[in-house]
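Appendix B, Record 12. Input sequence as logged:
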Amino acid sequence: MPDLTTWEAVPPERQRMSAPRLTAYREALAARRTSDLLIVRGGEIVHEWHAPGRTAASCHGSASLAKALVGGMSLLVALADGLLALDDPVARYVPEWRGHPLRGEVTVRQLATHSSGLQDAEAPGIDHFALGGWMEAFWRQEPDPFTLARDQAPFIFRPGTGYAYSNPGMAMLSYAVTAALAGSAQGDVRRLLGERVMGPLGVPAEEWSVGYGRTFRVNGLNLVANWGGGAFSARAAAAVGLLMLRGGRWAGRQVLPEEAVRTMLRPAGTPPPPYSEASPTLTPGLCWWLNADGRWTELPRDAFMGSGAGHQVLLVVPSLDLIVVRFGDRLGHDPDSDYWADLRCHLAAPLVDTLIDQTEDDWAAAPCPRSTAIRAVRWDAPSTIVRKAYDSDNWPVTWARDGHLLTAYGDGQGFEPFTGVKLGLGFARVEGRPPRFAGFNVRSASGENLGMGARGAKASGLLAAGGVLYMLCRNAGNAVLAWSEDGARTWQWAGWRFTESMGYPTFLNYGQDNAGARDEYAYVFSSDSDSAYVPADRFILARAPLERLREREAWSFFVRLDAAGAPLWSADVAARGAVFTHAGACARSSVAYNEALGRYLWWQNVPLPGGEVDTRFRGGFGLYEAPEPWGPWRAAYYTTAWDVGPGEMGVVPTKWLSADGREGWLVFSGHDCFSVRRFVLEV
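Logged structural output:
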């Protein structure tokens, strides 16, 4: 872990970030009144910049970033020590609230998530010191903000029934935490943070302060503001972010319990704020803002942040091992622009474009030689990715006779408007071409199931051929075939199964309704495993005549190539051979034929260390090409860590390939969405 005083920058490329792009990112932010920018990846500084007159040790006012750094961290310690519980009534710690018809109902959780119903000390367009009444007194701290929050702040709804941002609510959280600290070694929030958080992190005393520099004595308690009034250096804020990202560990020591850290960063189950693209407010966790519902599609769902007026921001993305601290004045040039829209547009969305999707070192891990037919694959910037059908994954795709794409999803509600029920297996039709396309859910009583994860059959391959839609499902002991003659509305299921190997079978797709197929067979690739969740050392290849696809005895398996390079087949699954080998890394895949180039394209995800096949939020993949389904396969693209989560399924829809075959779009399940990204093949 870093020593904050000697924390030095490393070349960004060492952490798969682009130095030129980071410079452009910083210049754009500097033009928007940024005074400090610090970017940390993998625990190392990859970019640090401070405006003239400022240094790495310079503090900046936190505004409401204090709600996370002060309110959140003090609550975390109190929870970890068992001094209070989230669903405790606050009246347990504030005697004046006992027996009150509304105040007596408020819980700690509600204060930490702005769902208590306590009115904020704000009014649109009015300065704090011109509000009048108790609101103005709250900011003037006369006589003190805590007594005013406790006794005078009214309720605008019953506790727990709505969302309303509330500074007095945060004040009462500090009140409750401090009361819970009574009799402990640390008697107030300032001392608590110093001894339990900032001290163990090695943050110099001159690089942080809290509570407007004041302590208020109320009912024998030393109360410190947690809603604002802090000041931190960018490195101090980043250190707190790194502590949270690492689950409470620092310098090899568990400073805070991991479970307590995770609790702070889970959705709290309280009413969320209203959301729109014009005002994309994140979801409140416990004093932190969460992207857990994927509202900001540019960022993974595990992203969280603390944020205050003037866009004082600490953004943490655990799956990318990435931290950003930004201090300054408001990002938007228009004073009437939306706070959250500006933050998303100018800080979050451009950030992902600074990541590098592939390095030369990645090629050393590729399981086969590099392609000479396709020299490189270039991807459009991450910020251009189109994401729809939030919270649904899987997404095999085929090009149907009617000209539309048909697809299937798992563990979700499909495209918007959602189905209203979370399906283990569901179906959809996709019309149009990227970036302007639309998805429509197709309901099917005979095809859908409610089994989540491994408990329900999932489509691993689709094939439209001869006006029929064929589907191979994994998680079906081991795999099962089904077919539909009405565009996925009704299904018939084979009375037999693949019970050996075929853990993740996927069809080879050609053109519309299988146009351009090399012969009369349907080809299927699969990891040589009995489970979609256990990577194998090799992939296998099977086939059956299309006219007999529904008959188990019609299937045969690739064994090997003969001396002339022709494939040999066997009806005995035990005789199967490898069509592709990659030790411990053959898991989920899809195959499509690029007719214009005369090459087969095979997308394969790369399991994470330990064999985890879920690469929706981080990980890598390979894109391989060959002149025949049996090879020889060569790597056109290989990355161990794509710049965004590659999904556990990626598909190249043949409908979306350009006429010359050099451009196309990848459909992938990254971020648990129907995600679409453009690519260019250099041939």
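The two ends are 44 Å apart (CA to CA).
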